[in-house]
Every structure is written in C-alpha cells, then in structure tokens.
Model the fold of this input.
Amino acid sequence: MTSFKSFLKSGHGPTLFAAFLYFAFSCCIWVLNGAMAPFISETFNLSPAQKGLMLSVPIIAGALMRFPLGVLSQYIGRKNATLVEMGLIAVAMLFGFFMVKSFNDLLAMGVLLGIAGASFGVALSLGSGWFPPQHKGLAMGLVGAGNVGTAVSVLVAPPLAQWLGWQSVYAVAAGAILLPMLVMVFLAKEPPDVDSHASLRAHIACLFEKDGWVFSLIYGVTFGGFIGLTTFLPSYYHDQFGVSKVQAGQLTMLAAFMGAAVRVFGGWISDRWGGVNTLTLVLVVVTVALTLVGLASSSLALTTLLLIVCFAALGAGNGALFQLVPLRWPTSTAVAGSMIGEIGALGGGLVPNAMGLSKQYLGSYLWGFVFFAVLSLVMLGVMRVMQIRWTRTWAEKGGRARLAAAAHDAPASKSAELRRAARP
Done:
C-alpha cells in the first residue's frame, strides 16, 4: 500500500482515473455489436461469414482511426482530443438508434463504433504522462485495465437488448458517455511530456522505424487477440454450445474481465522483470492455450477454463508491451502508442473473419484458433531476435527501464514545461 501511494505521488492520480474511465467507456461501446451479435444475427438472419464481417468492421475502423487521433492529440492536447472523440461517439450512438434498418446500415454502424476504438493511444499517454519512466508500466497498465469495459459490455448489453431491444442499447450508450466526459473536464490535467517544438516528422518517426512495426505486430497478437476474441465469443458460445444469448455474454465476460484485470499486473511485473521477459512467457501461453481451445470444442467447461488462461496471458502481454513503448519513444508516446494500437488492433479484425470463414468453408472453428496460435508463435521468434538490439540500446536486459534514462527524463520534461510557460 505504501508503495502504491508513492507511485500515485510520483504522478497525477486524477488524470490517471479520468483516462481509465474514458478508456473503459470507449471499450464498452466499441464491442457493442459483438455483445449483441446473437440478437443482431437473429434479426438479419446472418450467415457465419456475414457475422464475421459484421464483427470485424468496428475493430478495423477503430484501428484505422487511432493514429490520426494520436497525431491530433499532439497539437490540440490529449485532454481536448478525448472530449472531441467522446462527443462524436454520442452522435454515432444516436445514428445506431434511429438509422440502422438493414445489414448495410449495420456495417455503417460498425464504422461509427470504430470511433470509440480510437481512444487507446491517447488514453494511455494521457494517464501515464505525469509518471516517471520507472512507473510508466504500472500507470499504463492501470489505464489499459479500462479493457474491462469489454467485459461490462458483454455482461450488460445482452440483458438490456432482451429488455429494451438491441437498438435501444445504442441510446443508453449515448447518455452514458456523458459521465466520462464530465470526469475528463473536471479532473484531468494535460501532462507536460510532449516536446511542443517537435515537427510532424519527429512526432511520426515511429512510422519509419523497424521497432514500431515489430511492436505493432506483437500487439496484433496480444491486443488483437483480446479484442477480436471478446467480440467473437458471444457468437461462438451461442452457436457452438447452444447456450442462451445472455449466458453467452456472461461466459465471455469471465474471460474478458480476466484479460483486463491482468493487464495491470502485466505492466507492474514488466517494470520489475522486464517487458521482453514477460512477453516471452505470454506468447508461449497464448500459442498453447488457443490450440487447446480449438481442440476442446466439445466441452463448455474446458473451453471456458482455457479461454480464461488465454485472456490472462493476453492481458499481461498488453501491459508488458506498453511498458516498453514509453522507454522507446519517451516524448511521442501518444503517437507511437496510437500507431502500435492501430496496427495491433487490425489483428483483432482477423479473428472474427478467420473464425467465420473456418466454420463456413471447413466446417469447424478449429482452424481459426490454430491460425492465431501460429501467429503468436511467429511473433515470439521475431521478438527474441529483435530484443538483442533493444537491450543494447534503449532498455536494460529483459526489457526493464534504464536507470540513467529515468534520471534524465524528469529534468528534460521540466525543461520542456518551462519553455512552454515562457512563451508569449
């Protein structure tokens, strides 16, 4: 407890909380179509491939919007960027309530749900921006635990859809987004960890660096797996095991909640053990767990247990990877995080599509799970090769923060803050 109080004193707790709440509500709204998929599929009589497409559109749209929002936040401020985004989310939810009448409208709604998915990089950078390098892993893990919004969505949306009708859930979401907006306005404070004199080229340098792409592909497995499976599982449970629509959401919630909760642990342990070490263990567990899930399709209990293990590893991996990001890009974390989040989330779009195609053309979901397990194994090999250079240049052995970098970061941030204050 004393250690956690010291952690909070090293940064700005209210901003951390506001960023967490903003990200949690955004995640909740982002996966609404997945949470309500059994209801929507029944309304429009969707085939497995159509369900896969419907579920992948919000993930892909959210991924593509992340980087532009991250760049915008470097110029108007991360706090202002979150308020702009949440206002657009409210408008998007009203479109869903009033305008979705066909499958094409549903796909358009999926694009609008992607606005909520754009929140990732800005939320993590805003929440962790006040904290020193040796605590950024935990700070990002705490904000990233806003992934719990996906668990809330799959738990709450199905009963609401059953009670009010699935389109009315969009209207409920439009009203609910006002809460994180008010918290952001009154509690959040813009961090000083951005170099206001940097050019656009400097802000987007991560786009042209090999490390940025490697991080993105690893995140495509950890976060892409998390969001893609969370979106797909309500349909999988309902179709594969014949459980009710509400029970499918409840079972999905067990795994999604585990993934969100363990993300905090992933950031915390990576501060101490190293992000590279943590990711090595994570990718091994994900590879084995997903393969076994595909083979356990006749057992509801075993499938749920394996998915909980898999989601725990995915959550820890998300925290571990974003322990490394601010070490590699200390003054452009929002943009780097948004780029990595964008490409990584695109991996999530593969999951429902792969599952739907596997079921429709191969007669089983097995090969969809195996496909993603192989991707995890490949990224483990890539990371183990790349980490040799990482630990020689910008990180300690295993992926921990360099103490020298931590010592120099605070004066640099303070200097940037003083320069801004001195400007007319």
